[in-house]
Design brief:
single chain, 10 strands, globular, dioxygenase, oxidoreductase
Amino acid sequence: MYDAIKQIPAFMRLLSLEKNDRVFMQLRNINTPAIAAAGYGIRIDNPHEEKYRSLWHYEYRDQLRSIDGIVFWSPLVNLISEMGPVQICPRSHVGGLRRSYLKDPDNPEKTGVYAMRLENEEALIAQYGTVAPLSEPGDLLLIDFLTLHSSGVNISERSRWSIQFRYFSFEDPSGIRINWTGCVANGTQLKDIHPELVID
């Protein structure tokens, strides 16, 4: 279901609206926006489900397109606190790239990007603090590719549905250096692109 929804034509038309291009170009003062392939979808976060919950991360680590990028995030249902809205560390993007462990000892069932944990995670969260906006369909959050964020814990009785898609700049030198490699979900290994960001 999760992967099938990504292929609905109406959703594809939504993420590629020219309005989105203009928003990104205005915010970044560039002329060459790009949409991260395999970096878009509709998430379904079920109640009390932990295996696929996104822990604290920043988008560049998992997308590996260019550092200059923005996540477009919007809910498809009215969010209440029990549904675990997205948690964000304001201004954490100023801290730059962060190192990560590849495995989460507290959640051995997690794999891939879901298993990664940030170095000094608790200290980082305490340093920046968190916000968890309650939003509704039609609202839009724009999250810098270096901003620390995570999925909240859904303790309600219904699934949390949301849209995410990622825009990045073809002009950014970081992306040019790695040839806009592609996301970890497609099999790219973070340690092959950025060995300095991996703690074994």
